[in-house]
Design a protein that fits this description.
A hairpin with a 2-residue loop joins β1 (118-121) and β2 (124-127). The strands form two sheets. Strands 3-4-6-5 form a four-stranded antiparallel sheet. The chain has helices at 18-90, 128-145, 158-167, 190-193, 198-206; strands at residues 118-121, 124-127, 151-153, 185-188, 212-213, 229-232. The termini are far apart. With 241 residues, it is an alpha+beta fold. It is rod-shaped and about 120 Å long.
């Protein structure tokens, strides 16, 4: 029979349902958003960490400033109290005659004090107010021990300090930076007035009543222990700190 057969038609690829297509687009969009946000999140975290570090640093600086301010206030209070103690001692009958201890005292130049500002006590020179206070201390020391305290250094000129510094720079202060150059320090004889002796203990305990004492750095165990080095602490801000 001569019947005709129809040619088979081409099949079209099935289209994805619209719902599936929307889901694919949504997921792709979310992935792109997440990828784009990674640098932003990293930058935000770094900025937050930097801000936290800056805040911590600011707090530490403020805390240190407050600590120093309190230390300075304490130092000023101690200095004023020593000034008052020194003035109270000067209010007593003077021990040294012809020594201008009640007049205004020079605070320098270090190692170049005028001779008129210095007074001699027990063979050493000191600034007038320091000399008067040391003379009063000596009176009570002699009453306790029957002799004067052994002292081998008082005021030093700039040249004397320079010579001693050149011979022993590890122990002696540089010229122009020592309280010896202001007539406000004495060095005890180590053999006779060494730490632990009854005389050194007396000076350490009673010295502050006359305005004299060991600075904290010079005390046994201090940052530069020199237990023989006493200073006229009542001079307050005139001293080299």
């Amino acid at each position: 029979m001569g019947g005709r057969h129809a040619a088979p038609g081409r099949r079209r690829a099935p289209r994805p349902p619209r719902r599936r297509l929307r889901r694919v687009v949504l997921v792709a969009g979310l992935v792109l958003v997440m990828l784009a946000s990674v640098p932003l999140v990293r930058d935000w975290r770094e900025a937050a960490a930097e801000h936290a570090r800056a805040e911590q640093a600011a707090q530490e600086i403020a805390s240190e400033a407050l600590r120093r301010e309190r230390l300075e206030e304490q130092a000023v209070a101690v200095s004023r109290s020593l000034h008052a103690a020194g003035r109270a001692r000067v209010g007593r009958q003077l021990v040294l005659t012809g020594c201008p201890s009640e007049q205004a005292q020079p605070s320098g130049p270090n190692g170049r004090l005028p001779a008129s500002a210095l007074c001699t006590v027990d063979g050493i020179e000191l600034r007038a107010d320091a000399a008067e206070a040391w003379a009063r201390l000596e009176e009570d020391f002699r009453a306790a021990f029957g002799r004067s305290p052994c002292v081998n250094n008082g005021y030093r000129s700039y040249a004397q300090q320079a010579s001693m510094y050149a011979a022993n720079p590890g122990l002696v202060a540089a010229p122009g930076t020592s309280n010896h150059g202001l007539g406000l320090a004495v060095d005890l004889c180590g053999a006779e007035e060494g730490p632990g002796s009854s005389t050194w203990t007396w000076l350490d305990s009673n010295g502050p009543a006359y305005g004299w004492g060991l600075p904290s750095w010079a005390r046994p165990g201090g940052s530069r222990a020199e237990p023989w080095h006493f200073e006229y602490l009542a001079a307050g801000g005139d001293r080299v700190q």
